[in-house]
Amino acid sequence: MNKTIPSRKKHSVLPAPTIRRFPLYLSFLKSLKGKENVYVSAPDIAKTLRIDSTQITKDFSFIKVAGKTKVGYEINKLVQNIEKFLGYRDPKKAFIIGIGNLGTALIKYNQFSQEGLEIIAGFDIDTEKVGTRVISTKIYHIKNFKKRFNETPVEIGIITTPSEQAQIIADTIIECGIKAIWNFSASPISAPGTVIVENTSIDSGLAMIKWKLNAGRPLIYK
Amino acid sequence: MNKTIPSRKKHSVLPAPTIRRFPLYLSFLKSLKGKENVYVSAPDIAKTLRIDSTQITKDFSFIKVAGKTKVGYEINKLVQNIEKFLGYRDPKKAFIIGIGNLGTALIKYNQFSQEGLEIIAGFDIDTEKVGTRVISTKIYHIKNFKKRFNETPVEIGIITTPSEQAQIIADTIIECGIKAIWNFSASPISAPGTVIVENTSIDSGLAMIKWKLNAGRPLIYK
DNA sequence: AATCAATAAAGAAATTTTTCTTTAAAAGAA
DNA sequence: TTCTTTTAAAGAAAAATTTCTTTATTGATT
User: Given CB atoms, is B1 within the 8 Å cutoff of chain A?
Assistant: First the structure.
Protein backbone atom coordinates (compact mmCIF):
# COMPACT_ATOMS: atom_id res chain seq x y z
CA MET A 1 0.00 0.00 0.00
CA ASN A 2 0.85 3.64 -0.09
CA LYS A 3 1.37 3.66 -3.78
CA THR A 4 2.72 6.60 -5.63
CA ILE A 5 -0.02 8.99 -6.55
CA PRO A 6 -1.05 7.96 -10.06
CA SER A 7 0.93 10.40 -12.12
CA ARG A 8 0.21 12.20 -15.35
CA LYS A 9 2.79 9.95 -16.85
CA LYS A 10 -0.01 7.68 -18.04
CA HIS A 11 -1.24 10.36 -20.42
CA SER A 12 2.18 10.62 -21.85
CA VAL A 13 2.58 9.01 -25.22
CA LEU A 14 6.25 9.69 -25.21
CA PRO A 15 8.94 8.86 -22.69
CA ALA A 16 10.02 11.41 -20.13
CA PRO A 17 13.67 10.81 -21.03
CA THR A 18 12.84 11.75 -24.59
CA ILE A 19 11.33 15.02 -23.44
CA ARG A 20 14.44 15.77 -21.44
CA ARG A 21 16.62 15.08 -24.45
CA PHE A 22 14.90 17.54 -26.73
CA PRO A 23 16.53 20.66 -25.30
CA LEU A 24 19.87 18.94 -25.77
CA TYR A 25 19.14 18.20 -29.40
CA LEU A 26 17.94 21.73 -29.88
CA SER A 27 21.07 23.23 -28.49
CA PHE A 28 23.21 21.05 -30.68
CA LEU A 29 21.15 21.81 -33.77
CA LYS A 30 21.34 25.52 -33.14
CA SER A 31 25.10 25.31 -32.94
CA LEU A 32 24.94 23.84 -36.43
CA LYS A 33 22.92 26.63 -37.91
CA GLY A 34 24.83 29.26 -39.80
CA LYS A 35 27.11 26.55 -41.08
CA GLU A 36 26.67 25.53 -44.68
CA ASN A 37 24.93 22.23 -43.96
CA VAL A 38 21.19 22.07 -44.38
CA TYR A 39 20.88 18.49 -43.22
CA VAL A 40 22.18 16.51 -40.29
CA SER A 41 22.03 12.76 -39.81
CA ALA A 42 21.19 10.88 -36.65
CA PRO A 43 24.59 9.14 -36.58
CA ASP A 44 26.25 12.55 -36.74
CA ILE A 45 24.25 13.83 -33.81
CA ALA A 46 24.90 10.57 -32.01
CA LYS A 47 28.62 11.05 -32.33
CA THR A 48 28.79 14.29 -30.40
CA LEU A 49 25.96 13.64 -28.01
CA ARG A 50 26.94 10.10 -27.06
CA ILE A 51 23.40 8.89 -27.57
CA ASP A 52 22.50 5.85 -29.65
CA SER A 53 21.58 6.96 -33.13
CA THR A 54 18.44 4.87 -33.33
CA GLN A 55 17.24 6.49 -30.18
CA ILE A 56 17.64 9.86 -31.80
CA THR A 57 15.65 8.64 -34.79
CA LYS A 58 12.97 7.36 -32.47
CA ASP A 59 12.86 10.59 -30.50
CA PHE A 60 12.47 12.61 -33.68
CA SER A 61 9.68 10.36 -34.89
CA PHE A 62 7.60 11.50 -31.92
CA ILE A 63 7.54 15.04 -33.20
CA LYS A 64 6.76 14.05 -36.75
CA VAL A 65 9.84 15.11 -38.60
CA ALA A 66 10.67 12.86 -41.45
CA GLY A 67 14.28 12.28 -42.27
CA LYS A 68 15.61 11.60 -45.71
CA THR A 69 17.46 8.39 -46.32
CA LYS A 70 21.14 8.82 -46.96
CA VAL A 71 20.85 12.52 -46.12
CA GLY A 72 19.43 13.03 -42.67
CA TYR A 73 17.08 15.59 -41.20
CA GLU A 74 16.56 19.15 -42.31
CA ILE A 75 18.10 21.19 -39.53
CA ASN A 76 15.68 24.10 -39.75
CA LYS A 77 12.68 21.84 -39.75
CA LEU A 78 13.97 19.94 -36.73
CA VAL A 79 14.61 23.13 -34.81
CA GLN A 80 11.16 24.43 -35.66
CA ASN A 81 9.38 21.26 -34.68
CA ILE A 82 11.25 20.78 -31.44
CA GLU A 83 10.60 24.37 -30.47
CA LYS A 84 6.96 23.92 -31.27
CA PHE A 85 6.86 20.73 -29.31
CA LEU A 86 8.53 22.26 -26.29
CA GLY A 87 6.04 25.08 -26.35
CA TYR A 88 8.48 27.88 -27.01
CA ARG A 89 5.65 29.80 -28.58
CA ASP A 90 3.31 29.10 -25.71
CA PRO A 91 4.74 31.22 -22.91
CA LYS A 92 4.07 30.48 -19.26
CA LYS A 93 4.45 32.95 -16.46
CA ALA A 94 6.41 32.35 -13.28
CA PHE A 95 7.27 33.86 -9.94
CA ILE A 96 10.60 33.12 -8.39
CA ILE A 97 11.09 32.89 -4.65
CA GLY A 98 14.55 33.30 -3.22
CA ILE A 99 16.70 36.02 -4.76
CA GLY A 100 20.13 34.70 -3.89
CA ASN A 101 22.78 34.00 -6.47
CA LEU A 102 20.87 31.14 -8.01
CA GLY A 103 17.62 33.08 -8.16
CA THR A 104 19.44 36.01 -9.71
CA ALA A 105 21.14 33.71 -12.19
CA LEU A 106 17.79 32.33 -13.28
CA ILE A 107 16.24 35.76 -13.69
CA LYS A 108 19.21 36.79 -15.79
CA TYR A 109 19.19 33.57 -17.79
CA ASN A 110 18.31 35.11 -21.08
CA GLN A 111 17.21 31.96 -22.84
CA PHE A 112 14.01 31.68 -20.86
CA SER A 113 12.28 34.37 -22.89
CA GLN A 114 12.89 32.40 -26.07
CA GLU A 115 11.85 29.19 -24.37
CA GLY A 116 8.48 30.44 -23.31
CA LEU A 117 9.12 31.22 -19.68
CA GLU A 118 8.50 34.65 -18.28
CA ILE A 119 9.68 35.31 -14.76
CA ILE A 120 7.52 38.29 -13.98
CA ALA A 121 8.42 38.89 -10.36
CA GLY A 122 10.75 37.80 -7.61
CA PHE A 123 10.19 37.38 -3.88
CA ASP A 124 12.46 37.32 -0.87
CA ILE A 125 12.36 37.89 2.88
CA ASP A 126 15.46 40.06 2.86
CA THR A 127 14.24 43.65 3.16
CA GLU A 128 17.45 44.81 1.53
CA LYS A 129 16.39 43.08 -1.65
CA VAL A 130 12.72 44.02 -1.52
CA GLY A 131 12.06 46.98 -3.77
CA THR A 132 15.09 46.42 -5.95
CA ARG A 133 15.11 44.96 -9.43
CA VAL A 134 17.11 42.24 -11.09
CA ILE A 135 17.35 43.53 -14.61
CA SER A 136 13.75 44.59 -15.02
CA THR A 137 12.24 42.08 -12.63
CA LYS A 138 10.86 43.62 -9.45
CA ILE A 139 11.55 42.00 -6.11
CA TYR A 140 8.75 41.91 -3.57
CA HIS A 141 8.49 40.76 0.01
CA ILE A 142 7.32 37.19 0.28
CA LYS A 143 4.42 38.29 2.46
CA ASN A 144 2.97 40.00 -0.59
CA PHE A 145 3.00 36.84 -2.66
CA LYS A 146 -0.70 36.12 -2.38
CA LYS A 147 -1.64 39.67 -3.28
CA ARG A 148 0.63 39.67 -6.32
CA PHE A 149 -0.57 36.26 -7.32
CA ASN A 150 -4.18 37.35 -7.26
CA GLU A 151 -3.33 40.41 -9.33
CA THR A 152 -1.33 38.42 -11.86
CA PRO A 153 -1.76 34.68 -11.56
CA VAL A 154 1.16 32.63 -12.80
CA GLU A 155 1.41 28.95 -13.62
CA ILE A 156 4.86 28.24 -12.23
CA GLY A 157 6.56 28.93 -8.92
CA ILE A 158 10.33 28.64 -8.94
CA ILE A 159 11.83 27.95 -5.54
CA THR A 160 15.45 28.94 -5.03
CA THR A 161 15.40 29.42 -1.28
CA PRO A 162 17.55 27.51 1.17
CA SER A 163 16.27 24.00 1.89
CA GLU A 164 14.79 24.82 5.25
CA GLN A 165 12.35 27.29 3.77
CA ALA A 166 11.42 25.36 0.65
CA GLN A 167 8.47 23.48 2.12
CA ILE A 168 6.92 26.50 3.79
CA ILE A 169 7.19 28.47 0.59
CA ALA A 170 5.74 25.57 -1.34
CA ASP A 171 2.78 25.35 1.03
CA THR A 172 2.16 29.06 0.65
CA ILE A 173 2.18 29.10 -3.10
CA ILE A 174 0.20 25.88 -3.39
CA GLU A 175 -2.47 27.50 -1.27
CA CYS A 176 -2.53 30.39 -3.72
CA GLY A 177 -3.28 27.89 -6.45
CA ILE A 178 0.00 27.53 -8.28
CA LYS A 179 -0.04 24.78 -10.88
CA ALA A 180 3.60 23.81 -11.00
CA ILE A 181 6.60 24.11 -8.74
CA TRP A 182 10.13 24.11 -10.03
CA ASN A 183 12.22 23.25 -7.02
CA PHE A 184 15.91 24.09 -7.06
CA SER A 185 16.37 23.57 -3.36
CA ALA A 186 18.11 20.47 -2.09
CA SER A 187 15.10 19.24 -0.17
CA PRO A 188 12.18 17.47 -1.73
CA ILE A 189 8.83 19.15 -1.57
CA SER A 190 5.64 17.57 -0.39
CA ALA A 191 2.70 18.59 -2.50
CA PRO A 192 -0.73 17.26 -3.43
CA GLY A 193 -0.89 15.14 -6.55
CA THR A 194 -2.62 17.89 -8.45
CA VAL A 195 0.45 20.09 -8.27
CA ILE A 196 3.27 19.43 -10.71
CA VAL A 197 6.63 19.28 -9.01
CA GLU A 198 9.88 19.29 -10.91
CA ASN A 199 13.12 19.02 -8.97
CA THR A 200 16.33 20.30 -10.44
CA SER A 201 18.52 18.98 -7.72
CA ILE A 202 22.15 19.94 -7.80
CA ASP A 203 22.91 17.24 -5.28
CA SER A 204 21.53 14.50 -7.53
CA GLY A 205 23.95 15.57 -10.21
CA LEU A 206 26.83 15.48 -7.77
CA ALA A 207 25.77 12.06 -6.52
CA MET A 208 25.89 10.75 -10.05
CA ILE A 209 29.30 12.22 -10.80
CA LYS A 210 30.85 10.88 -7.66
CA TRP A 211 29.34 7.48 -8.32
CA LYS A 212 30.76 7.42 -11.83
CA LEU A 213 34.13 8.61 -10.59
CA ASN A 214 34.23 5.62 -8.33
CA ALA A 215 33.17 3.55 -11.34
CA GLY A 216 30.17 2.12 -9.64
CA ARG A 217 32.26 0.38 -7.05
CA PRO A 218 30.98 0.66 -3.52
CA LEU A 219 33.15 2.88 -1.40
CA ILE A 220 35.11 1.18 1.30
CA TYR A 221 35.56 2.93 4.60
CA LYS A 222 37.64 2.01 7.52
CA MET B 1 25.98 1.52 -36.39
CA ASN B 2 27.35 4.33 -34.33
CA LYS B 3 26.35 2.83 -31.05
CA THR B 4 26.59 4.70 -27.84
CA ILE B 5 30.05 4.40 -26.39
CA PRO B 6 29.81 1.46 -23.99
CA SER B 7 29.23 3.25 -20.74
CA ARG B 8 30.35 2.59 -17.23
CA LYS B 9 26.73 1.76 -16.57
CA LYS B 10 27.57 -1.89 -17.00
CA HIS B 11 29.64 -1.82 -13.83
CA SER B 12 26.71 -0.41 -12.04
CA VAL B 13 24.89 -2.88 -9.90
CA LEU B 14 22.30 -0.37 -8.99
CA PRO B 15 20.04 1.80 -11.10
CA ALA B 16 21.03 5.34 -11.95
CA PRO B 17 17.61 6.60 -10.84
CA THR B 18 18.27 5.06 -7.45
CA ILE B 19 21.52 6.96 -7.15
CA ARG B 20 19.74 10.17 -8.03
CA ARG B 21 17.10 9.52 -5.39
CA PHE B 22 19.55 9.13 -2.54
CA PRO B 23 20.23 12.83 -2.05
CA LEU B 24 16.48 13.34 -1.91
CA TYR B 25 16.09 10.72 0.77
CA LEU B 26 18.99 12.19 2.64
CA SER B 27 17.53 15.64 2.66
CA PHE B 28 14.21 14.33 3.88
CA LEU B 29 15.83 12.22 6.57
CA LYS B 30 17.87 15.13 7.81
CA SER B 31 14.75 17.21 8.15
CA LEU B 32 13.49 14.47 10.45
CA LYS B 33 16.48 14.51 12.73
CA GLY B 34 16.13 16.48 15.91
CA LYS B 35 12.54 15.35 16.12
CA GLU B 36 11.77 12.69 18.69
CA ASN B 37 11.40 9.81 16.23
CA VAL B 38 14.27 7.39 15.93
CA TYR B 39 12.69 5.33 13.17
CA VAL B 40 10.96 6.13 9.93
CA SER B 41 9.05 3.72 7.73
CA ALA B 42 9.16 3.48 3.96
CA PRO B 43 5.44 4.24 3.64
CA ASP B 44 5.97 7.41 5.65
CA ILE B 45 8.77 8.56 3.38
CA ALA B 46 6.67 7.58 0.40
CA LYS B 47 3.88 9.85 1.50
CA THR B 48 5.89 13.06 1.37
CA LEU B 49 8.19 12.15 -1.46
CA ARG B 50 5.55 10.76 -3.80
CA ILE B 51 7.65 7.70 -4.48
CA ASP B 52 6.31 4.16 -4.26
CA SER B 53 7.15 2.73 -0.86
CA THR B 54 8.47 -0.56 -2.20
CA GLN B 55 10.85 1.36 -4.36
CA ILE B 56 12.19 3.09 -1.31
CA THR B 57 12.66 -0.28 0.39
CA LYS B 58 14.44 -1.55 -2.66
CA ASP B 59 16.67 1.50 -2.88
CA PHE B 60 17.63 1.14 0.75
CA SER B 61 18.44 -2.53 0.30
CA PHE B 62 21.22 -1.53 -2.09
CA ILE B 63 23.08 0.23 0.67
CA LYS B 64 22.61 -2.55 3.17
CA VAL B 65 20.43 -0.96 5.76
CA ALA B 66 18.06 -3.40 7.31
CA GLY B 67 14.68 -2.13 8.35
CA LYS B 68 12.71 -3.47 11.25
CA THR B 69 9.32 -4.93 10.56
CA LYS B 70 6.47 -2.87 11.90
CA VAL B 71 8.88 -0.09 12.86
CA GLY B 72 10.87 1.06 9.88
CA TYR B 73 14.44 2.20 9.43
CA GLU B 74 16.69 3.78 11.99
CA ILE B 75 17.05 7.34 10.79
CA ASN B 76 20.62 7.83 11.96
CA LYS B 77 21.76 4.61 10.40
CA LEU B 78 20.11 5.49 7.11
CA VAL B 79 21.70 8.91 7.06
CA GLN B 80 25.08 7.46 7.83
CA ASN B 81 24.89 4.76 5.20
CA ILE B 82 23.60 7.02 2.47
CA GLU B 83 26.32 9.54 3.21
CA LYS B 84 28.88 6.80 3.08
CA PHE B 85 27.47 5.50 -0.13
CA LEU B 86 27.47 8.93 -1.74
CA GLY B 87 31.07 9.38 -0.76
CA TYR B 88 30.58 12.33 1.54
CA ARG B 89 33.71 11.29 3.35
CA ASP B 90 35.66 10.84 0.16
CA PRO B 91 36.16 14.41 -1.02
CA LYS B 92 36.87 15.26 -4.65
CA LYS B 93 38.42 18.48 -5.84
CA ALA B 94 36.97 20.67 -8.55
CA PHE B 95 37.68 23.76 -10.61
CA ILE B 96 34.81 25.88 -11.76
CA ILE B 97 34.88 27.78 -15.02
CA GLY B 98 32.53 30.71 -15.52
CA ILE B 99 32.10 33.02 -12.56
CA GLY B 100 28.72 34.48 -13.37
CA ASN B 101 25.77 34.29 -11.05
CA LEU B 102 25.44 30.55 -11.38
CA GLY B 103 29.14 29.95 -10.85
CA THR B 104 29.08 32.21 -7.83
CA ALA B 105 26.02 30.45 -6.50
CA LEU B 106 27.77 27.11 -6.75
CA ILE B 107 30.90 28.35 -5.03
CA LYS B 108 28.74 29.74 -2.24
CA TYR B 109 26.61 26.61 -2.03
CA ASN B 110 27.69 25.58 1.39
CA GLN B 111 26.50 22.00 1.27
CA PHE B 112 29.25 20.94 -1.09
CA SER B 113 31.85 20.82 1.65
CA GLN B 114 29.73 18.33 3.57
CA GLU B 115 29.02 16.38 0.41
CA GLY B 116 32.64 15.80 -0.44
CA LEU B 117 33.12 18.41 -3.14
CA GLU B 118 35.80 21.05 -2.81
CA ILE B 119 35.78 23.83 -5.35
CA ILE B 120 39.34 24.97 -4.96
CA ALA B 121 39.53 27.61 -7.66
CA GLY B 122 37.48 29.51 -10.19
CA PHE B 123 38.29 30.67 -13.70
CA ASP B 124 36.90 33.33 -15.99
CA ILE B 125 37.90 35.45 -18.98
CA ASP B 126 36.62 38.65 -17.43
CA THR B 127 39.69 40.53 -16.20
CA GLU B 128 37.50 42.36 -13.72
CA LYS B 129 36.86 39.07 -11.96
CA VAL B 130 40.38 37.71 -12.21
CA GLY B 131 42.25 38.26 -8.96
CA THR B 132 39.12 38.57 -6.85
CA ARG B 133 37.72 35.95 -4.53
CA VAL B 134 34.29 34.45 -4.07
CA ILE B 135 34.25 33.80 -0.37
CA SER B 136 37.70 32.28 -0.08
CA THR B 137 37.88 30.86 -3.60
CA LYS B 138 40.40 32.62 -5.82
CA ILE B 139 39.45 33.50 -9.38
CA TYR B 140 42.07 33.04 -12.07
CA HIS B 141 42.19 33.82 -15.75
CA ILE B 142 41.15 30.87 -17.85
CA LYS B 143 44.48 31.01 -19.69
CA ASN B 144 46.14 29.88 -16.48
CA PHE B 145 43.98 26.80 -16.18
CA LYS B 146 46.60 24.35 -17.35
CA LYS B 147 49.23 25.78 -15.04
CA ARG B 148 46.91 25.63 -12.05
CA PHE B 149 45.79 22.17 -12.99
CA ASN B 150 49.33 20.89 -13.10
CA GLU B 151 50.04 22.45 -9.73
CA THR B 152 46.90 21.05 -8.16
CA PRO B 153 45.18 18.42 -10.27
CA VAL B 154 41.46 18.11 -9.69
CA GLU B 155 39.04 15.39 -10.67
CA ILE B 156 36.07 17.52 -11.65
CA GLY B 157 35.62 20.53 -13.91
CA ILE B 158 32.40 22.45 -13.44
CA ILE B 159 31.34 24.44 -16.47
CA THR B 160 29.05 27.39 -15.88
CA THR B 161 29.97 29.47 -18.89
CA PRO B 162 27.54 30.57 -21.59
CA SER B 163 26.69 27.81 -24.06
CA GLU B 164 28.90 29.10 -26.83
CA GLN B 165 32.03 28.69 -24.76
CA ALA B 166 31.18 25.40 -23.12
CA GLN B 167 32.74 23.15 -25.75
CA ILE B 168 35.98 25.10 -26.03
CA ILE B 169 36.37 25.07 -22.28
CA ALA B 170 35.58 21.37 -22.22
CA ASP B 171 38.24 20.66 -24.84
CA THR B 172 40.78 22.64 -22.87
CA ILE B 173 40.19 20.90 -19.60
CA ILE B 174 39.91 17.46 -21.18
CA GLU B 175 43.32 18.04 -22.67
CA CYS B 176 44.61 18.80 -19.21
CA GLY B 177 43.38 15.42 -18.13
CA ILE B 178 40.22 16.15 -16.19
CA LYS B 179 38.27 13.03 -15.26
CA ALA B 180 34.76 14.40 -15.02
CA ILE B 181 32.87 17.38 -16.36
CA TRP B 182 29.82 18.75 -14.68
CA ASN B 183 28.14 20.79 -17.35
CA PHE B 184 25.61 23.42 -16.32
CA SER B 185 25.53 25.09 -19.71
CA ALA B 186 22.56 24.58 -21.98
CA SER B 187 24.60 22.96 -24.71
CA PRO B 188 25.71 19.38 -24.65
CA ILE B 189 29.40 18.67 -24.54
CA SER B 190 31.27 16.36 -26.81
CA ALA B 191 33.90 14.38 -25.00
CA PRO B 192 35.75 11.10 -25.36
CA GLY B 193 34.19 8.11 -23.68
CA THR B 194 36.84 8.09 -21.01
CA VAL B 195 35.64 11.39 -19.65
CA ILE B 196 32.61 11.39 -17.39
CA VAL B 197 30.07 14.01 -18.41
CA GLU B 198 27.13 14.95 -16.23
CA ASN B 199 24.67 17.51 -17.51
CA THR B 200 22.58 19.50 -15.12
CA SER B 201 20.47 21.14 -17.75
CA ILE B 202 18.09 23.81 -16.65
CA ASP B 203 16.36 23.61 -20.00
CA SER B 204 15.54 19.92 -19.56
CA GLY B 205 13.76 20.75 -16.34
CA LEU B 206 11.79 23.48 -18.04
CA ALA B 207 10.90 21.18 -20.91
CA MET B 208 9.48 18.69 -18.45
CA ILE B 209 7.45 21.26 -16.56
CA LYS B 210 5.94 22.72 -19.67
CA TRP B 211 5.12 19.27 -20.95
CA LYS B 212 3.39 18.37 -17.72
CA LEU B 213 1.55 21.67 -17.68
CA ASN B 214 0.12 20.77 -21.04
CA ALA B 215 -0.69 17.37 -19.56
CA GLY B 216 1.19 15.48 -22.19
CA ARG B 217 -1.03 16.72 -24.94
CA PRO B 218 0.74 17.87 -28.06
CA LEU B 219 0.58 21.61 -28.50
CA ILE B 220 -1.55 22.82 -31.33
CA TYR B 221 -0.39 25.84 -33.27
CA LYS B 222 -2.18 27.80 -35.88
C1' DA C 1 22.54 1.17 -65.62
C1' DA C 2 24.15 -1.37 -61.94
C1' DT C 3 26.25 -1.52 -57.64
C1' DC C 4 27.52 0.17 -53.26
C1' DA C 5 27.11 2.56 -48.97
C1' DA C 6 24.66 5.30 -45.73
C1' DT C 7 20.68 6.16 -43.52
C1' DA C 8 15.73 6.48 -41.82
C1' DA C 9 12.09 3.81 -40.11
C1' DA C 10 9.63 0.21 -38.12
C1' DG C 11 9.41 -3.49 -35.36
C1' DA C 12 11.52 -7.04 -32.28
C1' DA C 13 14.30 -8.01 -28.56
C1' DA C 14 16.74 -6.96 -24.59
C1' DT C 15 17.44 -4.41 -20.72
C1' DT C 16 16.31 -1.58 -17.06
C1' DT C 17 13.28 0.21 -13.80
C1' DT C 18 9.10 0.24 -11.42
C1' DT C 19 5.18 -1.81 -9.45
C1' DC C 20 2.75 -5.68 -7.62
C1' DT C 21 2.35 -9.87 -4.82
C1' DT C 22 3.42 -12.79 -1.33
C1' DT C 23 5.58 -13.99 2.89
C1' DA C 24 7.22 -13.48 7.33
C1' DA C 25 8.17 -10.86 11.28
C1' DA C 26 6.94 -8.12 15.05
C1' DA C 27 4.48 -4.53 17.65
C1' DG C 28 0.29 -3.50 19.80
C1' DA C 29 -4.44 -4.54 21.11
C1' DA C 30 -7.90 -7.57 22.79
C1' DT D 1 -1.87 -15.64 24.86
C1' DT D 2 -3.99 -14.79 20.46
C1' DC D 3 -5.37 -11.85 16.99
C1' DT D 4 -4.78 -7.90 14.10
C1' DT D 5 -2.17 -4.68 11.74
C1' DT D 6 1.84 -2.75 9.91
C1' DT D 7 5.86 -3.24 7.74
C1' DA D 8 10.27 -5.01 5.48
C1' DA D 9 11.98 -8.11 2.20
C1' DA D 10 12.25 -10.97 -1.61
C1' DG D 11 10.76 -12.31 -5.76
C1' DA D 12 7.53 -12.04 -9.77
C1' DA D 13 5.35 -9.37 -12.99
C1' DA D 14 4.64 -5.41 -15.54
C1' DA D 15 5.93 -1.32 -17.65
C1' DA D 16 9.05 1.70 -19.60
C1' DT D 17 13.08 2.56 -22.13
C1' DT D 18 16.89 1.43 -24.83
C1' DT D 19 19.26 -1.26 -28.13
C1' DC D 20 19.35 -4.40 -31.93
C1' DT D 21 17.76 -6.15 -36.40
C1' DT D 22 15.80 -5.89 -40.65
C1' DT D 23 14.08 -3.53 -44.56
C1' DA D 24 13.72 -0.15 -47.88
C1' DT D 25 15.19 4.07 -49.84
C1' DT D 26 18.27 7.09 -52.00
C1' DG D 27 22.41 9.41 -53.21
C1' DA D 28 26.91 8.50 -54.90
C1' DT D 29 30.19 5.66 -57.48
C1' DT D 30 31.72 2.63 -60.96
Answer: yes
Q: What is the number of structural domains in chain A? A: 2
Which has the closest alpha carbon to A187: A175, A172, A204, A173? A204
Are A184 and A101 contained in the same domain?
A: yes
Q: Is residue B80 located within the same domain as residue B162? A: no
Q: Is the pTM higher than 0.85?
A: yes
Picking from B12, B50, B221, the nearest residue to A216 by CB comes out as B12
Nearest chain A CA: its distance from B59 CA (Å): 14
Pairing of strands A39-40, A73-74: antiparallel
Residue numbers of the domain that contains A54: 16-85
Distance from residue A72's CA to nucleotide C3's C1', rounded to whole Å: 22
pLDDT tens per residue, range B116-163: 999 999 999 999 999 999 999 999 999 999 999 999 999 999 999 999
Whether the CB of B211 is below 8 Å from some CB of chain A: the reply is yes
| Predicted confidence (pLDDT) per residue in A108-124, tens digit | 998 999 999 999 999 99
